[in-house]
Write a structure and sequence with these properties.
mainly alpha; Arc Repressor Mutant, subunit A; globular; 5 helices
Amino acid sequence: MARLALMPAGAARSTWRPVGEALGTPLTPRERKVLVEILKGRGNAAIARDLAISPHTVKNHVYNIFQKTGAGSRKELYLFAVHRGR
């Protein structure tokens, strides 16, 4: 049975698709660190401060994470991670 991940089908709703389609490009090590902080409920400013990078860089990492996972919000990103077992 294929593992599933949350993928937005449109602007207003989401659908489930196989994980391979959801994460075609793996996250970079820095994106993984940012993802962990997002999953802790941290905001961009706090993440920037703790990782010693600019808030703009954090914003870019968050955008890339959303693109790679197909998440449309931090809530969807959390659900994606839960269903991926990360």
